[in-house]
Amino acid sequence: MFKRWWPSFLGALLVAAAFIWVYVFFPVMAKLPADYEQNYYFSGTVQVLNSATNQLNPAMPVNVTRALKASGLEDDVLLLDQKITFTHAQAGTELPFGSEEVYGLDRTTRANVAGYGDISRTGQFTFPADTQKQDYPFWSATANQSLTAKFVKEETYQGLTVYVFQVDQKNINLGTYANTGIPQSGDFLINIKVEPVSGVPVYSDTTTTLKISPAPSVSMPIFISTIAYTSETIDEMVSTAESTQSLIMWASVYAFWIVVGVGIVFIGIGFFRNRAA
């Protein structure tokens, strides 16, 4: 009997193995790695308030580095150090606009996990794999709260199908300015293009405007930064998105259906062998 049915047994094992791979092993492999490290490079301009004239200084060219490096795991939550550095694009001197934070991330969803990192955060740190055409809350270190990245459209960018998201929120309360008691607020405009299978952001530009209100109905900008991915970072992110998309599709879709198909063929062979006998 076994000689007649062994193809069906083998086919059933192949089908079971395919499902176990997709629903058990692949999700573990798809997590952010414990040694995650990535640098993003931006260029643009910054304007700051001249306290002597109460006017913004002329825009200065800047280069910005966003350095991300995993520093450990706590209960499978990834601790990620982020260091943002501004330098003058011509002089090369570091400017006092940078920041350092420690995030605690869900390795699967890439969302902030409350209670981990240097402060408790909400929303996404970055887009998840299998990004959907929906709005996502994103944590902003400058705003110290989550802002909404709204889905705008689908388009083709650098040969990739991407989803375009935009954060456009104005007059976000930022407390008071430099212990003066003067109310401070911020406007945030961010455009992001994401390859949806991998969740890799292949383009990003950000305009941040910080304002003070020294008197009712008076709003005075004190800081404006406009930065975007450098062409080198765009090229790197497009390449990363292409390779990651291909890996995900082969590991979770194409290989799955190939193995399931082969398994079904073997199951059918077993049935036909049994009937013929």
Largest beta sheet, briefly? 12 strands, antiparallel
Give helix % range: 25-40%
Percent of sequence in beta strands: over 45%
Return Rg in Å.
25 Å
Total individual domains = 1
Alpha-beta classification: alpha+beta
How many angstroms does the end-to-end distance come to? 10 Å
Task: Name the average pLDDT.
Answer: 90
**Strand element count:** 12
What shape does the CA trace take?
elongated
Give me the oligomer status: single chain
Give the ordered list of helices and strands: HEEEEEEEEEEEEH
Unreliable stretches (pLDDT < 50, length at least 5) are none
Determine the number of helices (DSSP H or I, runs of at least 4 residues): 2
Protein name: DUF3068 domain-containing protein
InterPro entries: PorA
Keywords: Membrane, Transmembrane, Transmembrane helix
Transmembrane segments: 247-272
Could you describe the 3D structure shown?
By secondary structure, the chain is α+β, with helices and mostly antiparallel strands. It has one domain. Helices cover 27% and strands 48% of the residues. It is built from 2 helices and 12 strands, in the order αββββββββββββα. The chain has helices spanning 2-29, 231-276, and strands at residues 37-50, 55-56, 60-74, 77-88, 94-106, 112-117, 136-140, 145-157, 160-176, 183-195, 200-212, 220-229. Strands 1, 2, 3, 4, 5, 6, 7, 8, 9, 10, 11 and 12 form a 12-stranded antiparallel beta sheet that branches. β7 (136-140) and β8 (145-157) form a beta hairpin. α1 packs antiparallel against α2 (231-276). It is elongated. The mean pLDDT is 90. InterPro entries: PorA. The chain crosses the membrane at residues 247-272.
